Amino acid sequence: MATAESHIYAPATHTTKKRSVVWDWMTTVDHKKIGILYGVTALFFFIVGGIEAMLIRIQLAKPDNAFLSPDVYNQLFTMHGTTMIFLVAMPISVALFNYIVPLQIGARDVAFPRLNALSYWVFLFGAIFMNFSFVLGAAPNGGWFGYAPLTSSQYGPGLNIDFWVLGLQALGAASIMGGVNFITTIIQLRAPGLRLMRLPLFTWMTLFTSFLIVTALPVFAVALFLVTFDRFWGTNFFVMQAGGDPMVWQHLFWMFGHPEVYILILPAFGIISEIIPTFSRKPLFGYAVMVYSGALIALISWGVWAHHMFASGMGPIADAFFTISTMIIAIPTGVKIFNWIATMWGGSIRFTTAMLYAVGMLITFTIGGVSGVMHATSPHDLQQTDTYFVVAHFHYVIVGGTILAVFAGLYFWFPKLTGRLMNERLGKLQFWIYFIGFNLTFMPQHWIGLLGMPRRIYTYSADLNLEALNMLSTAGVPIQGLGVILLAGNIIWSLKRGAIAGDNPWNAATLEWATTSPPADHNFNQIPTVHSREPLWVEAAQVRATTLGPIEPHMHMPPNSYWPIFTAVGIVATFILFMTNIWWMPLLGLAWTVIGTINWAYEPT
Amino acid sequence: MATAAIEQHHPAHPPTATGLDTWKVGFWVFMGSETLFFGSLISVYMVYKGTSVVGPFPSDVFDIPLTSISTFVLLMSSLAVVLALEFLRAGRRSLALFWTMVIIVLGATFLGFQAYEFTHFYHEGLTLGTNLFGSSFFVLTGFHGAHVTIGVIWLLMLWVDMFRGRLRPENSLRFEIAGLYWHFVDIVWIVIFTLIYLME
Amino acid sequence: MADPHAIHDQHGHAHAEGEHHPVGWKKYVVIGVILAIITGAEVAIFYIEALAPVLIPLLLALSAAKFILVVLYFMHLKMDHAIFGRVFWAPLFLAVLVVAGMVILFKVLPKYGVFS
């Protein structure tokens, strides 16, 4: 007898044999299933990264603590950053891109469904590969930013950095493939009448994020290749005796790294831009400005990278240039904050859990933004850089920005994915606990940093007199942990016992709410034609008559395929085989990839 | 079977928002991304230019006349692509086959020149690990050569498809996209030839 | 919706764009000849001592011309829908920025003083 859960996730193959369910998920090309795969994987790694953080904060609770050795500490803080950025924040955004964007644009799937699957499997195998390093006691230990020559064979002996450069190369490839996919999807597969300036903001932000992904990740790929070739093939890119320059790494890394943080935050802006209008029962204030500011942020994000390098001695001209450009990027960002507030102003506000998270995000993200503007001024930054002030800043924008927005999105879109609402009472309790815990951990870090505690150190002296503040910061961790446990509990409880949601429980405006919860495999019975930005507020009857009307007779859904997962093995193997230190071994992985690609190319769709 | 092969690259069966082919749009996006990849590699070469501590140095090993010929070969192969595509679309199968084979031969010739050049440099004492010139030169041109190799294999497979009648005017898009890839590899070389060889 | 005509329309549309110039292949040969001539000019300039002061700007201009000719004509960007150009030129602009930025940061700015 199918349980509520298997009813919701059962594939169209109409069998309940466990083997075919597993095979269906392994060969799926359905954007909704791939979105769920990304989301579940990302949430798992959120727990992993959270445990890493917990261990870090335990070590730092007291001065001269010996809970963790320096070497283990280095591995933990490196993997905490790497995990949270590459295995949590990015994939969770991709999970939402995957699930929501085709629905929002009235499409049946993404432009390249098999490529979509490939991206996921490469991501998963790369993530497993990187974390396998813990089993060998050799997790990456050069920081998430891997500065050369610390990452060279000379100063980073052992397998740690190998895992880092090779694993991230695979993950980067997966991201680029996804970026190409989403840009093409948004250009090509919009429903009739859905002009660009009618697109939901979440879809717009997906487009801008994807543009950043396809432009920034290749630079990172090159930087990683340089370190890889130095480590395995004896090149000299970062060998100081041969003239190698550590600044080359820094510039290439941050040329990627700064757009990367906008890759992390733009999806969050998109999520908030859907939730706030919905729960204010008002259209988004200044739609066009929100679109243009998003585009501006994406573009300018390419011009600010060296603000991460103010202490590297670039000279006054470079410092001045990047100070100015960094201040400029604060403007379109600030404009967005005002527009969200203006959306709420005069609206009929409902504080659902999703709305609580969204408004909470506005507050904490703004705090993070303010400390960011303080960093922009290079003289200021010389005091603040490499201290806990920076740590406070980026946790406020990434956790207080991206993660809170993601949680908001979870509460908002959970009914669409599962057909059930999450528990609101537990949700609100969980929100406050997490919100308080988060602020308790990271607010003191502004003071800790300005009072002189450096970052990236495994312990500190009692002479700094920062024990109380550090203890306070650590105290927030179990509170956050409780919040996360309650969130997990809410998800599990709601999957089985949540109230049935219906198509549009929030009375929201955009097309994903114009179909069943969860949607059928084919998303919409017929593709709607739209004439507005808020189809379900302006023309609901007309839209729903098509989306929920008679099923279109001859639609073609892309069939399952095992070539994506097959090819993913080849791609990740290519990088793993570098670690054999036999120069031709990676070619075997390439050969496997080629076999997969050719079969894929000739497969009927 | 043949119908499946003809239709198999049209995943977007409903009309698209732009009326354009989805594969073509996606491929141009991909090429945009690749400009960043090669741009970064080129920037590394440019930054490390003139900073090698030991030789051999570029002027010791570069053979401009030879590289000019290989550049010319690659440029002409781009012309061959355009001709092959026109003839394929016009249904003139033998000419399409001929010009496709020309692309492949010219591409393989270019790779031959590269192989000769790499071997020659190696015999002059320049390896990946000799100095910054060796590292940045071989990595940049190595990645480019790998892209050319992929292109040659891809075009060979398309030649076979053309020969077997599986590649026809109706589904010539597959060839057009391979052609775009080939042109892209050519324009990257145009930049490399100027910045790396001629501006030495 | 997914009837064969729709596919052919998509194809037909693309086909029509390519068929704008029915004797197009001759035009491409002309462009090929121009490319060969420019390459020859570049090599010649390389060897002419008198042009050494303007070598770099000249070479940059000539190779840019070749680049643009191949992209606009061989890759058909000039005749195709504007969207193809938009998704290509924007990243290319950033790529040029990367090269220019790195050269400026490492080769030009150090002349104006660095903090040590």
What features would you describe in this structure?
- The complex is a heterotrimer of chains A (605), B (200) and C (116).
- Chain A has helices spanning 4-9, 18-26, 31-60, 70-104, 113-135, 160-188, 201-233, 246-280, 287-300, 316-344, 353-376, 378-384, 388-418, 424-450, 467-497, 535-538, 540-547, 563-576, 585-601.
- Chain A has 2 domains: 30-558, Up-down Bundle (Cytochrome C Oxidase, Chain A); 559-605.
- Chain A contains 19 helices and no strands.
- Chain B has a single domain (20-50, 61-198), classed as Four Helix Bundle (Hemerythrin (Met), subunit A) (Up-down Bundle), CATH 1.20.120.80.
- Chain B contains 7 helices and no strands.
- Chain B has helices at residues 2-7, 22-48, 58-61, 64-89, 93-123, 132-163, 173-198.
- In chain B, α2 packs parallel to α7 (173-198), α4 (64-89) runs antiparallel to α5 and α5 runs antiparallel to α6.
- With 116 residues, chain C is an all-alpha fold.
- Chain C has 4 helices and no strands.
- Chain C has helices spanning 4-18, 24-47, 55-74, 82-108.
- Mean pLDDT of chain C is 81; it is low at 1-22.
- The interface between B and C is large, with 57 and 56 residues.
What features would you highlight for this structure?
heterotrimer; A: 605 residues; mainly alpha; Cytochrome C Oxidase, Chain A; 19 helices; 67% helix; C: 116 residues; 4 helices; 74% helix; disordered N terminus
Condensed summary:
The complex is a heterotrimer of chains A (605), B (200) and C (116). Chain A has 605 residues and is mainly alpha-helical.
Number of strands of chain B: 0
Q: Would you tell me the overall average pLDDT of chain B?
A: 92
| Low-pLDDT stretches of chain B | 1-12
Q: Per CATH, what is the topology of chain B?
A: Four Helix Bundle (Hemerythrin (Met), subunit A)
Describe the SSE topology.
The complex is a heterotrimer of chains A (605), B (200) and C (116).
Chain A: H1 4-9, H2 18-26, H3 31-60, H4 70-104, H5 113-135, H6 160-188, H7 201-233, H8 246-280, H9 287-300, H10 316-344, H11 353-376, H12 378-384, H13 388-418, H14 424-450, H15 467-497, H16 535-538, H17 540-547, H18 563-576, H19 585-601
Helix pairs in contact in A: 3-4, 3-5, 3-15, 4-5, 4-6, 4-8, 4-13, 5-6, 5-18, 6-7, 6-18, 7-8, 7-9, 8-10, 8-11, 8-13, 9-10, 10-11, 11-13, 11-14, 13-14, 14-15, 18-19
Chain B: H1 2-7, H2 22-48, H3 58-61, H4 64-89, H5 93-123, H6 132-163, H7 173-198
Helix pairs in contact in B: 2-6, 2-7, 4-5, 4-7, 5-6, 6-7
Chain C: H1 4-18, H2 24-47, H3 55-74, H4 82-108
